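Researcher: Let's try something more involved. This one mixes different molecule types, so please make sure each is placed in the same coordinate frame as the others.
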Amino acid sequence: MVEQATALQTGGGPPGALSFYYGHPDPAAFPLAELRAAVDATWQRHFPTALLYGPEQGSPLLLDILCQKMRHDEGLKLSPEQVFIAAGASQGLDLICRLWARPGDAVLVEAPSYHEAIALLRDYPVRLAAVPLDDEGLIVDALAERLHALRAEGTPVAFLYTIPTFQNPSGVTMSAARRQALVTLAQTEKLWLVEDDVYRDLCYEGTVPPSLFELAGGQSVLRLGSFSKTLAPGLRLGWVLAEPPAIARLADSGLHRSAGGANPFTAYVVAEFCRAGHLEPHVARLVARYRARRDAMLEALAATMPPGVTWTRPRGGFFVWLTLPEPLTAREVLAAAEARGITFPPGEPFFAEGGGERHIRLPFSYVDTPDIFRGMDILGQAIRAVSR
Amino acid sequence: MVEQATALQTGGGPPGALSFYYGHPDPAAFPLAELRAAVDATWQRHFPTALLYGPEQGSPLLLDILCQKMRHDEGLKLSPEQVFIAAGASQGLDLICRLWARPGDAVLVEAPSYHEAIALLRDYPVRLAAVPLDDEGLIVDALAERLHALRAEGTPVAFLYTIPTFQNPSGVTMSAARRQALVTLAQTEKLWLVEDDVYRDLCYEGTVPPSLFELAGGQSVLRLGSFSKTLAPGLRLGWVLAEPPAIARLADSGLHRSAGGANPFTAYVVAEFCRAGHLEPHVARLVARYRARRDAMLEALAATMPPGVTWTRPRGGFFVWLTLPEPLTAREVLAAAEARGITFPPGEPFFAEGGGERHIRLPFSYVDTPDIFRGMDILGQAIRAVSR
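Model: All components are placed in one shared frame. Result:
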């Protein structure tokens, strides 16, 4: 049992290793003063309400604030009936899998996809089916093929879990054309889409394409959002956007009928933080911070990687995805890297149906710039060492 | 969408109705000043840790404090490896059902049992099998019979969900002899027990028998606790006690691998509240408050109920359970009661396999004494009105 601050330093590798392990935000960027003011505002304005079991759908104040945020950021006109407060995007995905998937159903995921979402889905009696992506995101033709094959063999498909924007782990963003093709396919095939959209606010270059939720006019898409990447994961707050009957089903789940709404206390704290106007300037500061680190990582990779190594150029989010040339594997590079003082997750857990041996996920979010250069220099040495 | 404070007043009945609907604590008893001091202590001592993804098992400080609490209150010698922090007892039960039950399994529940736990379990592909209780709690012989019948027909049994202490909804406490018989049966039959123990601290008379967890030496029992009844539900914190491999399985769930530990921020707030020594005197005040209300409800019932109506005498917890004489039903009484200005939940949702038509659950926790007398007077009138 270790405090997370220590875990961040060790990251599963040898003691003292420089960790490129987690997909975490930078604790040094937490807006402590503004959050503390939001806690004070909560005490002044929302007691005892913030200490009660809240309405199952979530704090009404935060529902309204999320509607305003989506309208301001994306021009989305939402009503509160289209929003559900979750105890983080993970809890939202968990609840969706419980209510949308029946035993034996297939759940489609990207290859690669977020490894802990794969772990979460594996706790359910569903079968995971992986569909590859490329630099434009999920390959929609491959999805159609897999969907038809599953249905042809009599396997119902509960939903597709996709991370179209600044994907975890690949850093890839699904192109606007692919998004439209995916939504068209989903509507034709009556396939539910679960759109994990937790990195949308962290865009360092260009613009973010419209969400699948927006393109689908809100129909048959469950879009997950989170304050964990932009505000603080310890508050455990995220949300789901969906059509009103789907939101009503989430709120009427047995879990929420028993427990009430997700985290009433911290929901009011976050609502007051947003209401005071702190979110937008805070996100702007985060974007500047993380953009500099992304730039540093891309510069460091260009300077240190041996020939044959390739990597993605993310326009946002937390991750660069690196591919080793054959016959190298990430596990042998990891051993050499840990011997030299850095650690990272090798690629296999990101692939639900095998593969990933030559991939490495590299977060740049919580490592400062000098350590990014130092870490990539060590990674380059490790790759060269195992290449001999 | 309504604020919960309003919901408490309306309680699902007609606007302005006096509500005996929810199993909620009294918001007027929240220890606001002490909680606010605990928030301040959290800012001073646990930042940024309290805003990070915490360790999957939960905040180490709160794990230690729970070990101390069980040792002080019950003489239980626990190690932190036997404790898991959950986002409320409901989330603990939810995670247990996910990990312990396979599709098609039976889950045994008491008849009656907590209706929202029944709703929660029904979101899983399990079959609920109800076993009756009497004034000494779950009838262990009936449990043995049902267990054998299920297994004889080839249905695996995932676990028994039981609320042995100050049961919701019946107010009944399982006797020490029944507890021992239950634990013996469970060990012989290799049956997992999920012991919902959220009312243990709220004892108004006599002593609380040892928990099933204690009697079983911690083996094959998952015991749920909560700060929702004694501190504040809006903090969303509870815990699970179990043997270390079971705790490790909960912590290694995909949900917690993705989300980290349950509610790090409020976990530190609760830990600081407890560390400052506030919990014990606060619970003592709650016990005095709720004991007076229980006494008032029992006095009011004795004064107002027509012949033939019976009710339980809870030694703790939140609820009195009332039984109407045949041929009256709770639903016809409810209609007459709502016409006169009170509301309550009729009994059917508390029975997983039917029944409950003649039962009424009456919480005394969040209704003040004058309203308890007024409400029971109205209830007596309503019963008389439909008896004619």
